Amino acid sequence: MMTIELTRFDAAAYLTEAEDQADLLAEALATGDVHVITQAIGIVARAHGMTELAQETGIKRQQLYRVLGPEGNPTLGTMLKLLPALGLRMRIEAAA
Fold it and tell me: Over the stretch 77-93, which tens digit does the pLDDT of each residue have?
């Protein structure tokens, strides 16, 4: 019997371009699912580097992993710190 070795897939390793990251977040937002949105923000955060992000935002690295993890629910205040550090901004538009 042949043994198959699997490696863990991490989308953050492939989302190195800001435009791709913004597209991921736009798709996540379109779902309206808080967990999907939080997971997408976590992927983008890991792509940037959690240590650097923690230093830039003043949010502890462990806290970033917690609030952007599977059970996370970041506050608006956290998002307002994270998004500029990720090179992103939040925009509100009138619903069509």
Answer: 999 999 999 988 888 88
